[in-house]
Amino acid sequence: MSDEKLFGMPAESGRWVFIALGFIINICLGSVYAYSVFAKPVRALMNISATEVGLPFMVFLAAFAILVFIGGQLMAKLGPRNLGILGGVILGAGWMLASQSTSITMLAISYGIIGGGGVGLAYGVPLAVSGRWFPDKRGLALGLTLAGFGGSAFVSANVASALIKSVGPMQTFLYLGLTFLIVVCVCFIPYRFPKDGWKPAGWTPPVAAGTGVVDLDIGGMTKTPAFYGLFLCYIIGCLAGLMAIGISSPVAQEIIKIAPGTAATLVGIFAIFNGAGRPIFGVITDKLSPRGAAIISFIIILLSSLGMLTAGEGNVILYVICFIGFWLCLGGWLAIAPTSTNTFFGVKNYAKNYGLVFIAYGVGAILGGIISGQAKDAFGSYQVAFYPTAGLAIVGMIIAFIMMKPPKRS
After folding, report:
1. What is the CATH architecture assignment of 1-199?
2. pTM of the shown model
3. Residues of the chain with CATH 1.20.1250.20
């Protein structure tokens, strides 16, 4: 099987093109992380509250998580190329329809439900394809593929900010939507799985002694403690990370007293670490274990939360270090979770299995939004939100240590 060709090259070399294409696709899909750039101008345009302007972002993430699960079910029927192109068309349509919104409800439906749904359908395709072509370097491959998603805000936030200044927020939705539709669909055209049984020349799959299950379907997966441990830990990791992403700029301005322009620049810098978190934690997961990577991430989240609980006006360096930690760990969980799903439950049913696991991302997004919003509304400061993230990080360490172990061979 090692003589298979990809892009006119031996498969061992050609498969890296899927990593490059997946990176580009994920830059488009991850543009949701730049939503904060739209928040202030959209709020002014529609004359709405800060809570209301965050609704499309929360709806987007929830639709994203749900449609990843549905996309996993459709993968076998449509194939990776067709599913990816379908997701790209829906994503682009959602952003373009958002440009016609005259209310926050319309924006939540177009950008949130339609745009988020398109991202959800397309999101699992590069992961599933990379996982099949890189059985020998799965954590690294998934991490590099996903780095584009995490680092997207560094590109999309700057582009969107420039466009908003030039043509306004609604026209910016239109231009970006058309761009995403074209780029994502073109990049998905060559996508395909390897033939059954393909493996890199000279590579022999490791055989675990007494543990590990070759392939579990959703029914088998949900009967294992490993699934529930992974799911709960994923919720906690995403809750802390997505909450931090949503309040990075207002925390900088309101607590640390950083100027708005500087705060926006820092958000772009944080996005780099979010992107870097994927390959870094992908390698850590490969080298140590899913449990080890999870515990390291929760230690960083705990330290970052404690740091922000002591932060005040002028503590710029402390703020930057803590938020780098939050963004890095969110990126980390978007590598730990898919790699763990592959490692614990096998490759054969990966798309469906990870679709279910990924619902934890949506749960984390909603809970993170509620925690930060309630902290601001009830106590007048986002700083209070870091008490729950500190406590949950400790809970996450305990869950990871006890439950994130390879299922015993049945």
Report:
1. Up-down Bundle (1.20)
2. 0.77
3. 1-199, 212-410
Which DSSP letter does residue 33 get? G
- CB 200, CB 295: distance < 8 Å: no
CA–CA gap between residue 131 and residue 123 (Å, rounded): 13
Task: Report whether pLDDT(207) > 70.
Answer: no
pLDDT digits (tens, 9 = 90+) for 53-70: 778 888 898 899 889 889
- As a whole number of angstroms, the distance between CA 92 and CA 185 comes to 10
CB neighbourhood size of 177 (10 A): 24
Q: How far is CA 228 from CA 131, 222, 357, 368, in A?
A: 22, 7, 9, 20
DSSP letter for each residue of 310-346: H--TT-HHHHHHHHHHHHHHHHHHHHHHHHHHHHHH-
Residue among 249, 231, 251 nearest 385 (CA) = 251
Q: Which helix (H) or strand (E) holds 10?
A: strand 9-10
Residue 154: alpha-carbon gap to chain centroid: 15
Q: What is the pLDDT of residues 346-400, one digit of tens each?
A: 888 887 898 899 889 889 988 988 888 888 888 888 899 999 999 999 999 999 9
Q: Which CATH number fits domain 212-410: 3.30.499.10, 1.10.10.10, 1.20.1250.20, 3.30.750.24?
A: 1.20.1250.20
Treating both helix axes as pointing N-terminal to C-terminal, what angle do 359-379 and 55-98 enclose, rounded to 10 degrees?
Answer: 120
